[in-house]
């Protein structure tokens, strides 16, 4: 497939996943703020920090109120990573590859974007924000379902899947990091009632609560981290995302599972192995935030390698690989 | 919604012979529309508009900064063409494109038509769209113009005329298919009892044609659609056609010329391209041959084309025949090349390049429509009867300074079709653009794009200037319908025992 098209499909899918995860971030905090009452107000700042866009936020808003944070993360087109901006990006990418994706995908994405854009101008959304953000999560899942069910599982689909999974791995790590920020000011709360509620909300934001209970039963911080980082089967767990993206990357390279064909595969394989052979106790002892930070850096390197390998225009002297 | 108050005025109405008297071909539809309960049609019109929005069926308008896309305006009342009349139109279009193709080939080669005075010397000598690099060329299979969109109009007497030929990169066929799709989604009952000729096979026909013109010796040609990109007004259509044909949509930057062939850059390296359905204008195709500043094209493309290693549709150079001055001579060209009389007449046209006709145009400019010879999209047209004195004077000067570039025609009262205006129907002017594919044989898509001037009294149907469209139905005469084969019942939950028993 065309390099330009692969690039667009990868980012289309990645941007949709990003929008979904921002909605998840917001929803976890909305729930927390209901359960924690006034104390929760201080919990909106970490959301901005974990998204990494604190400078842009300071420039545009300043104060970390619920309203400001939701506006910035969901509706502000001046924030390139807001939900509405992500969907605009996804739609623009889809528009340039409309001939590659199914009509149903295009139509649903188009509707998704239009509905969020309309919501951005509808202040009544903030009366029941939880509903709205749940709709965003559902619409993103709908896109994933339609993609899987209407697109041939060949190269373009693998690029879409790769984009989605890498984004998801990154965002699950950030959801976990939110907890780290929240914990910082009140280490004394560890193991208390409040702590359990917060870890529970965190799991819910990754739609992981029920699956977690099946696997670990009681909510315990170490087990939660174990589940979201190291679980092989849970679809939002970082490890699972890496395992599956490695499969797609390998399918794209067209190679055998026991060979490495390019730098992207090499970097992703190494990161996956790192996680595969990690123990949660080691991770926590070494610092959860530090682990997550390192993970995100390596994930970005994988992204850069994918760009170099597949999307960047190859030098024009490249030997043709196909002829009649 | 009924037609009791509907007026045909002094125009030919495609649906009614006279107020309250439907034409035979539309009787059935009229009674169906009238049988709908109050508000029903408007509801369906609304849902059609919503579907268009959701489907992202849009066109780009140049000069609109924010949100360059506009939703394609569509009216639910179709325009109906009788099968018998369509036969005539189809024959007329085939005749026309055959002669035009012979003309283009002759112009770039022997120029017999000039030697024999079939057209005047000045016409070709001064043609803006004559491409010198194409001289002496003959494209694969001798076909220059593979895809044509010819504009037809009907005057107040019901006579069908050719208004102009679009032989370069005619747009709009995707809307023909999407209009049909929208009609089926939102007003399926409208089709009951009719046999409307299908349009859905156009992309297959297009692909067949493109594969047919592949370079010699290529058995399984790789076809691509070349677009200028997402900001082009017809980008939607470029995507649509590539998708429906299942081929790559490429931009100039995706292609390169290496080792005498055209390649596209893929995730697995370079892949050879054999046929390019290009939707960018001639002058942008190859910066090495044409405009050096073009970033839309592919450097070296023309060399590969001339060497016969890639096919281009339409062939570069076809624009020489969609010059509006050349248009005026098409009936003569049909006589000259085919020795036949023209089936679909031209609108009477004064050619300013001929001195006497030019004088007549200047003297009668307030009664005429003046058109520049090489513009498209409705730009640069003067409607004499509706123009101010200053505008008339300006055009007189324009014509005097460059008579070659102007033609003039009487102002036609274009035919009308009932169109939904809030809670009632009003007549709105329409034209028709059928699409013709010239490959192994000549195929005319039944119907075409009916464009409608949505503003009251307006004659301007271009989408860039406020026009919309309607579905176009060509009726199959004498069709009796098909039957379904009988099918075994499907298994349902709890029904296993029943199947085991049988």
Automatic annotation (TrEMBL), chain A:
One Pfam short name: Alpha-E
Every DUF403 domain range: 1-311
InterPro entries cross-referenced by the UniProt entry: ATP-dep_Glu-Cys_Ligase-2 (IPR051680), DUF403 (IPR007296)
Highest taxon of source: Bacteria
Identification of the protein by name: DUF403 domain-containing protein
Taxonomic source organism: Anatilimnocola aggregata
Taxonomic lineage of the native organism: Bacteria, Pseudomonadati, Planctomycetota, Planctomycetia, Pirellulales
TrEMBL record, chain B:
InterPro entries on file: ATP-dep_Glu-Cys_Ligase-2, CP_ATPgrasp_2, UCP005522
Highest taxon of the lineage: Bacteria
Gene3D superfamilies per the UniProt record, alphabetical: 3.30.1490.270, 3.40.50.11290
Chain ranges passing through the membrane: none
Bias (Polar residues): 486-502
Stretches the record annotates as Disordered: 481-502
Positions of the Circularly permuted ATP-grasp type domain: 78-453
Pfam family of the protein (one): CP_ATPgrasp_2
PANTHER family attached to this UniProt entry: BLR5612 PROTEIN, SLL1039 PROTEIN
Protein name: Circularly permuted ATP-grasp type 2 domain-containing protein
Provenance organism: Anatilimnocola aggregata
């Amino acid at each position: 497939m065309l390099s330009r098209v692969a690039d667009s499909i990868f980012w289309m899918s990645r941007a949709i996943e990003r929008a979904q995860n921002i909605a998840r971030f917001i929803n976890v905090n909305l729930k927390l703020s209901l359960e924690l009452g006034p104390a929760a107000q201080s919990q909106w700042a970490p959301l901005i920090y974990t998204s990494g866009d604190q400078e842009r936020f300071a420039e545009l808003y300043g104060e970390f109120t619920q309203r400001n944070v939701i506006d910035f993360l969901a509706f502000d087109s001046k924030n390139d990573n807001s939900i509405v901006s992500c969907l605009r990006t996804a739609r623009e990418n889809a528009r340039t590859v409309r001939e590659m994706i199914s009509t149903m995908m295009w139509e649903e994405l188009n509707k998704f974007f239009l509905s969020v854009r309309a919501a951005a101008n509808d202040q009544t959304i903030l009366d029941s924000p939880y509903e709205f953000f749940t709709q965003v999560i559902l619409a993103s899942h709908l896109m994933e379902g339609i993609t899987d069910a209407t697109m041939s599982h060949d190269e373009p689909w693998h690029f879409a899947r790769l984009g989605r999974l890498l984004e998801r791995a990154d965002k699950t790590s950030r959801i976990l990091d939110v907890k780290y920020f929240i914990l910082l000011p009140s280490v004394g709360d560890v193991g208390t009632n409040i702590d359990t509620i917060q870890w529970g909300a965190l799991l819910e934001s990754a739609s992981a609560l029920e699956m977690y209970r099946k696997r670990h039963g009681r909510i315990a911080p170490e087990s939660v981290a174990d589940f979201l980082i190291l679980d092989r089967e849970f679809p939002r767990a970082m490890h699972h995302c890496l395992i599956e993206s490695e499969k797609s990357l390998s399918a794209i390279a067209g190679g055998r599972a026991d060979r490495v064909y390019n730098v992207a595969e090499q970097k992703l394989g190494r990161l996956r192995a790192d996680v595969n052979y990690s123990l949660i106790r080691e991770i926590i002892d070494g610092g959860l935030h530090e682990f997550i930070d390192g993970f995100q850096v390596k994930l970005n390197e994988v992204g850069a390698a994918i760009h170099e390998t597949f999307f960047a225009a190859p030098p024009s002297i490249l030997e043709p690989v196909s002829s009649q | 919604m009924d037609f009791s108050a509907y007026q045909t005025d002094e125009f030919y109405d495609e649906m009614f012979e006279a107020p309250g008297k439907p034409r035979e071909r539309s009787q059935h539809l009229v009674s169906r529309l009238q049988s709908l309960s109050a508000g029903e049609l408007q509801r369906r019109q609304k849902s059609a508009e919503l579907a268009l929005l959701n489907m992202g069926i849009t066109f780009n308008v140049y000069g609109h900064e924010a949100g360059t896309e506009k939703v394609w305006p569509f009216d639910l009342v179709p325009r109906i063409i009788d099968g018998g009349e369509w036969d005539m139109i189809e024959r007329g279009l085939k005749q026309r494109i055959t002669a035009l193709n012979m003309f283009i080939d002759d112009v770039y080669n022997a120029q017999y038509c000039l030697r024999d005075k079939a057209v005047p010397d000045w016409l070709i000598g001064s043609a803006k769209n004559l491409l010198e690099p194409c001289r002496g060329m003959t494209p694969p299979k001798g076909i220059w113009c593979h895809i044509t969109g010819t504009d037809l109009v009907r005057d107040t007497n019901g006579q069908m005329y050719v208004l102009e030929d679009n032989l370069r990169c005619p747009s709009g066929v995707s809307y023909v298919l999407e209009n049909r799709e929208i009609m089926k989604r939102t007003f399926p009952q409208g089709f009951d009892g009719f046999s409307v000729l299908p349009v859905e096979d156009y992309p297959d026909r297009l692909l067949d044609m493109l594969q047919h013109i592949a370079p010699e010796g290529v058995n399984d040609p790789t076809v691509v659609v070349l677009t200028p990109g997402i900001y082009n007004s017809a980008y939607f259509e470029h995507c649509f056609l590539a998708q429906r044909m299942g081929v790559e949509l490429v931009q100039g930057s995706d292609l390169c010329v290496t080792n005498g062939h055209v390649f596209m850059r893929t995730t697995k390296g370079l892949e050879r391209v054999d046929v390019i359905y290009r939707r960018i204008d001639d002058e942008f195709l190859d910066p090495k041959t044409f405009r050096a500043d073009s970033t839309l094209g592919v450097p070296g493309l023309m060399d590969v084309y001339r060497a016969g290693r890639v096919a281009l549709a339409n062939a570069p150079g076809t624009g020489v025949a969609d010059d509006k001055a050349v248009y005026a001579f098409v009936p003569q060209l049909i006589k000259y090349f085919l020795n036949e009389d023209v089936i679909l007449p031209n609108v009477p046209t004064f050619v300013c390049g001929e001195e006497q006709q030019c004088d007549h145009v200047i003297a009668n400019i307030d009664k005429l429509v003046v058109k520049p010879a090489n513009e498209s999209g409705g730009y640069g047209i003067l409607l004499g009867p509706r123009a101010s004195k200053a505008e008339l004077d300006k055009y007189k000067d324009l014509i005097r300074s460059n008579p070659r570039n102007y033609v003039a025609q009487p102002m036609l009262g274009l035919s009308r079709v009932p169109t939904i205006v809030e809670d009632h129907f009003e007549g709105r002017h329409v034209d028709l653009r059928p699409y013709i594919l010239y490959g192994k044989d000549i195929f005319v898509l039944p119907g075409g794009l009916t464009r409608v001037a949505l503003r009251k009294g307006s004659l301007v149907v271009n989408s860039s200037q406020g026009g919309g469209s309607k579905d176009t139905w060509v009726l199959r005469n004498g069709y009796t319908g098909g039957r379904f084969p009988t099918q075994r019942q499907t298994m349902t939950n709890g029904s296993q025992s029943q199947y085991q028993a049988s």
